[in-house]
Inverse folding.
């Protein structure tokens, strides 16, 4: 005997408009405050500074580990006298030159790679050869070729930016869906216009990731290069400031210089890249 | 229906076309010796089971896939590459660049093909957005829209180009059944107003009968022409009617029961739910 479900009476309900049920309610004040990313990150920074202060007090040796307050004083002092901003300006000028040249070269290389078979081979060969090569290892060679000066620095900077950015951009180009490519060709776009109007915006999340990595690589390379030979160029940057103060055992100034490096990193990350992301890929729903 | 005046010239001629796909290990024959003519204001449907090469045919007409044999002519000109005179509406939602708003998306082909200046493009885009009922969403980004709305944007974008032909590759297949029904209805209304020429690919017999005025049946693997059938007499109101069901059954027989003609009992359920 098969088991049948019972037959029940049908019914209909006439729906009246909902009046007293709110469709949304605001989050609590505390929730809303805690939603602010800058606040959460500031709390983290504060806790780190506190730990540092405690560790320095406990260690009690200014020469090895100056406290947070001492470093802050040296930092403020450096900023007020204009010494630190001057050094930063020198470093940033060189950095931006290298960074921009790297971006342009990378765009040319990836455009070649998406348009021709030979360009593709060139890109994969060059990146696999040079990407593992530390930029700083090229510095002696660069000094030989370009002499003591900004040009050598720019050369190693381009090297540190170019390959990371190229790898990311190309990977982003490859990930652009066939449908979008066909839509672009359907509109009559080809060549450079196709790359600029379809591939670059569609691959923007990867390109931004590449720009981020490139920026970090460039910073590291620049500071390291200045530590090695910053003096010889006559007007050293931030790396040279750190190196010089270590030689004279002004450890608090060394820390102030390092703090400046991290501070600039934080600023560029949050005011620069995060803003660009918020205005582009996040707004377009391409990235969470 | 119309009085017999001069026979109009076909807009699109597909002439003994063979299409091939090259995979890593083999060359796959997608279609063999396919010929058909599409006339202006036709709603011409390519219908067949999956693997019959109907999408490949549409891609070939779009200019994305050069024929291995035969030729395809639009207005007498052989098609060699993609171009804005044949706008394709794909099934996938990511055909709309996510970095452009709805309005910018509709303007994009007009600007990219240098058909119109910025202001004229904006005017025309607004006009066609109004036609598909999306004026309110002109400044929204595609990721905030529902599937049906994205399909509407894709259609508005195609119509705004005023192409010689509109190519649709299963445009409603990714939509839910209710939205699909609504979109079919809207497409027919738009056709009534604008009278564009449509080449429509589907694997749903029901959709083919409703949307098309003429249906080309393709056999599976490799695709060959099995029949051409008139369906101009059917619309959404004829769903479930006797003659509609008979034609659907006939198409089903032509597509699937080649070896045992009419002997096997055919359940209409198979037809209705085949997509």
């Amino acid at each position: 005997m098969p088991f049948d479900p019972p037959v029940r009476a049908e019914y209909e309900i006439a729906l009246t408009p909902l009046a007293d049920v709110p469709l949304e309610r605001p989050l609590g004040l505390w929730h809303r405050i805690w939603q602010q990313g800058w606040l959460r990150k500031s709390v983290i920074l504060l806790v780190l500074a506190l730990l540092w202060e405690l560790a320095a007090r406990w260690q009690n040796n200014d020469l090895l580990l100056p406290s947070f307050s001492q470093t802050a004083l040296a930092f403020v002092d450096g900023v007020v006298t204009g010494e630190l901003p001057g050094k930063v300006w020198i470093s940033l000028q060189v950095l931006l030159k290298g960074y921009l040249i790297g971006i342009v070269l990378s765009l040319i290389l990836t455009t070649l790679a998406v348009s021709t078979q030979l360009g593709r081979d060139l890109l994969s060969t060059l990146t696999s050869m040079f990407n593992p090569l530390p930029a700083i290892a090229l510095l002696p060679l660069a000094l030989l070729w370009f002499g003591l000066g900004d040009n050598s620095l720019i050369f190693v900077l381009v090297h540190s930016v170019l390959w990371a950015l190229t790898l990311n951009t190309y990977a982003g180009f490859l990930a652009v869906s066939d449908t979008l490519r066909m839509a672009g060709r359907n509109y009559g776009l080809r060549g450079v216009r196709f790359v600029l109007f379809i591939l670059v915006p569609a691959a923007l999340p990867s390109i931004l990731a590449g720009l981020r990595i490139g920026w970090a690589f460039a910073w590291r390379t620049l500071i390291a290069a200045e530590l090695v030979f910053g003096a010889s160029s006559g007007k050293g940057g931030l790396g040279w400031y750190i190196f010089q103060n270590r030689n004279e055992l002004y450890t608090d100034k060394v820390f102030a210089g390092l703090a400046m490096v991290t501070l600039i990193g934080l600023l560029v990350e949050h005011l620069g890249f995060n803003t660009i992301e918020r205005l582009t890929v996040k707004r377009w729903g391409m990235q969470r | 229906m119309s009085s017999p005046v001069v026979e109009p010239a076909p807009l699109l001629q597909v002439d003994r076309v063979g299409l091939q796909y090259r995979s890593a290990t083999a060359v796959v024959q997608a279609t063999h010796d396919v010929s058909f003519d599409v006339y202006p204001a036709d709603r011409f449907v390519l219908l067949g089971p999956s693997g019959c090469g109907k999408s490949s045919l549409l891609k070939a007409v779009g200019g994305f896939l050069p024929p291995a044999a035969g030729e395809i002519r639009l207005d007498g000109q052989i098609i060699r590459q993609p171009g804005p005179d044949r706008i394709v509406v794909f099934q996938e939602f990511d055909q709309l660049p996510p970095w452009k708003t709805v309005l910018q998306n509709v303007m994009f082909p007009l600007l990219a093909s240098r058909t119109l200046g910025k202001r004229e493009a904006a005017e025309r885009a607004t006009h066609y957005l109004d036609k598909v009922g999306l004026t309110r969403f002109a400044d929204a980004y595609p990721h905030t829209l529902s599937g049906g709305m994205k399909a509407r944007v894709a259609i508005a974008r195609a119509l705004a180009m005023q192409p010689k032909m509109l190519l649709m590759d299963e445009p409603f297949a990714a939509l839910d059944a209710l939205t699909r029904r609504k979109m079919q209805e809207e497409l027919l209304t738009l056709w009534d107003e604008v009278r564009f020429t449509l080449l429509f690919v589907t694997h749903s017999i029901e959709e083919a009968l409703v949307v098309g005025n003429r249906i080309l049946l393709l056999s599976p693997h490799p695709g060959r022409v099995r029949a051409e059938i008139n369906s101009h007499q059917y619309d959404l109101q004829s769903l479930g009617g006797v003659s509609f069901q008979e034609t659907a059954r006939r198409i089903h027989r032509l597509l699937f029961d080649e070896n045992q003609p009419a002997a096997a009992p055919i359940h209409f359920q198979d037809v209705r739910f085949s997509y």
